[in-house]
Amino acid sequence: MVTYLLEFRQVSISRACRVVKLPKSMFYYKNIRDDSETIDKLNWLADRHPTEGQDLYYSRIRQQGFLWNYKRVRRVYLLLGMNRRKKTKRRVPARIKVPLAVPGQSGEMWSVDFMSDVLVNKRKFRTLKVIDDYNRQAITVEAAYSMPAARVTQILEYAIKEQGKPVCIRVDNGPEFVSKEFRDWCAQKGITIRHTQPGKPMQNGYIERFNRTFRENILDAYLFEDIGQVQQLADEWMEDYNYKRPHEALGGLTPNHFKQIKQP
After folding, report:
1. Domain tally for the chain?
2. Taking Cα atoms as reference points, which of 79, 151, 119 lies closest to residue 230?
């Protein structure tokens, strides 16, 4: 305001300060504080520790030997808008490419994957499929409107009771499979998780081939009025798939027959 009066009303500094009731000392005051180093340090910490807050940043700064006081760090922290909640994208850890090998025995590797479709009323549903890579056996096909991680682990619990515990489970990087609940459950069971690389579905090639067969024979072949119809047809198809349908990859044997004659 004082600057405006000086420029457009051509009054003295004393009169302008008197009009706006501003001490002349404040008008002449120049801020000589340089916060560039503090700004750089806070930005550096935010890049490497995005989930931490001001107090942890301050503790890290003090541990690194900087003698800035809490008020200074707080002022710059607010100036940079770091107190506002930010949406951060969850990063998928680096995945190692593992060749798609044929397991040597049943239960060595299970593959798990999802598929989606809609009922005639346009309501979406999902199907969770679990197969044994050794003999391509369909262990379970479960249909539901919603399939959170808790439901996935529950389905796998039932499968383990019937088939025994697998050594390893191969999955993609879907939210259910990277969740803490799924990882903790596998750790508790002593099951190794093998994630495919993002954008590389053929690293889970056995179940991708299974998905194609399931879609052609069930999802694309029928119109479903409710989730119960999906589950009933899936159960009937799975029975035929395991015990009656010959597989070229198994030398013309069914998964059940292959397991009986090949399992040591």
Report:
1. 3
2. 119
Using alpha carbons, select from 249, 210, 241, 212 the residue that is nearest to residue 129.
210
Could you tell me the two tokens for 238? 């799975």
Any domain includes 67:
yes
Higher pLDDT, 117 or 7: 117
Q: Is the Cβ–Cβ distance between 20 and 2 less than 8 Å?
A: yes
pLDDT per residue as tens digits for the range 179-236: 899 999 999 999 999 888 777 777 778 889 999 999 999 999 999 999 999 999 999 9
Q: Do 114 and 79 share a domain, yes or no?
A: no
Share of the chain above pLDDT 90, in %: 39
Residue 75 tokens, joined: 């002022």
Packing angle of the helix pair 70-79, 54-63 (nearest 10 deg): 130
Six token digits for residue 59: 């503790």
Read off the tokens for 24.
């002349």
The reply to whether 153 and 204 lie within a common domain is: yes
First to last CA, the chain: 91
User: Region 150-169: what's the mean pLDDT?
Assistant: 92
pTM above 0.70, yes or no: no
Are residues 137 and 57 part of one domain? no
Same domain flag for 1 and 131: no
Token output for 212: 């194609």
Residue with tokens 């059940």: 256
